[in-house]
Structures are given as structure tokens and as C-alpha cells.
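[audit] Reproducing an earlier prediction to check determinism. Same input, same settings, fresh worker. If the C-alpha cells differ from the archived copy the diff job will pick it up downstream; this log only records the rerun itself.
[audit] input (332 residues):
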Amino acid sequence: MNDRAVSLFEKYDVTIEKTRKGRGAIIAETEKGTLELVEYSGPIENLAMEERLLKNVAKRFACPLDLILKTSEEELFCTDYEGKKYIVKRYIDGAECNVLEESACIEASSALARLHVAMRNPDFEGGDEVGGKRDNLLEDFDRRTTELIRTRNYIRKNPKKEEFELMFLHSCDRYLEQAALACSFLDGECLQALGKKQEAERMMVHGNCTHHNVLFTKQGVTFVNFEKMGAHLQTKDIYLFMRKILEKNDWSYELGREMLAAYEKELKLEKAEKRYLYARFLYPEKFWKIANGYLNRRKSVPARRQQEKLEAFEQKEEKRQLFLNKWLETCR
């Protein structure tokens, strides 16, 4: 065990039997079970609400969650001699969801719906703090579209254009059209329905629901790393989970349909939620990420890498469009 981990675990009322390294964590066997020590970079003020919400969710969800452990001084975090902040959580032993195993992706979708049921209407004192926030997807879309336009204008003014810049200009207007179309699906009626549903059911989301945070354990499918947990439309989690899986599976419509069907067996989506999901699939987020990476590129990131990402995205665009054409029917 390294000295830093020893000094930090000493702040907790546990006896360490042995430790090992995990992915970005120190995992410790204790008399209170297996725990993990991880660095915490989020806002400290969010920890108290996260801990209360997660305890509440754990009572309703069948599988174990990585609850935060308090220090001997009843603090939710500790600091090392450099001032870095750490938290200790319950360690969940399991295998990440395999994005290429269709049955696993479908099973995980069903588990996500059960998690979402557990993440509605918290019944503890102060739970009203969860409500009141509105989804700001249109603002996000507008901000990203503005960034795309800024990138396009910057490249146009650049007299010396490399291959990446030429590829970007060739594609940009097409993706800007997609961005505008995505926004059009979120009209006033749709946004009003979404806002009412979110507030009425006081929805919470995992916030970082990628396959890396979905674990298959002996007790069943569970979820970890709730640091971005908060009030939001739960369709956001569905999108975050499905998008990466669909990308890895060549935008398979059949897989997407089965994943959504598995989710809806547990928790039905309303028409407005399906429009929201379609708008998120339609918005060219990957293209925006490439533009964002280009605008904020570091000298250590070669231009060739950005070009490779754009080429890979373009290679799958035809399949993505076929998926979108079929998926549009789910909104009607």
C-alpha cells in the first residue's frame, strides 16, 4: 500500500487488511467490506446532496450502489498533503457492459429503467431541492452550433488550409442543417410537456451513463460513479448510454429498437420524451466534438488525429442517416 493511501484511509473508521490498485483508485479490503479511494474533482458542495440522494435511491434499487463513506469526523471527503480531495466509496465488483454484446446492452437498458424508477420523487426531507431545474438542451444546442459556425468561419479565413480543414468545410453546412433540424423537434409544446413531466416526477439522472459505469455483478446489473447525478430529464441518460453503443454497432436500428423496448417494458416514455431522444440522436454531437477539439487543440495533439476522427465519423454517416430515418417513426 502506498503511503498516501495509508494516511487517507487513517481518516476513516476502518481497518485495512490489504489493498490493490484499480482504475484510478486504491481498492482496500476492510472489516466493513471492500472500499475504494478515488480522487474527487467535482464541487464539494454537491457531495452532501449526492450522498443523501444516493442513499435514497439505494433503498429502492435492487442491486448495490457505490455509496460514499464518511470519515471519522463525519466528513464526506478528505484531503492529502497537497490539498487534493478524495472520497471513499463502496467498491462494486463487476464487469463493464460489453458494447458489442447485444444481449448485455439490452439487459442494461432494462436495468437503467429500474434505476430511473428509483431516482424519481425522493422521499427524504429536503428532497424538494431536486426539483425546479429545467432541461437546457436547446441552450446547449445553440452554444454548440455557435461553436461550429465559429470554427467554420475561422477556417475560411485561414489562407493555408490543411486536409482536415478542407474536409471540415466540405461537411460543415450539412451538419449545421442537421443541428437546425434537431432544434426544430424541440418546439414550445414539446418543451412544455417535458418541463411539466420533469417537475411533476422530480426526476434525477445518473449524468454520466456510459457503458463504463454499467456493471454486471453477481447481484445483477448496477451503476457506479454518480458524481454527475442531478435533476434532469431521464431521457438524457438513455441517450448517453445508447449513443456510444450504437456507434460501436454501426448504428444498428434493430439493436436500438430492442434496447428502447427493454427500457419501456419497465418505464414507458411519452411522445415528447421520444422527440427529445430523436433530437439528441439527430444533433451531430460527434462532429461538434471534433470542432471543439480543433478550436481548443494543444500543440501536443497532432492535426492528423483530428483528421482521423473526422474520417471515422464520416465513414459511419450513411449508416447513421439510415438509423435516423427509421428511428423517426418512434416519434410519431
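[audit] rerun output stored. Observation attached for the diff report: The chain has two domains: 3-93, 102-331.
[audit] end
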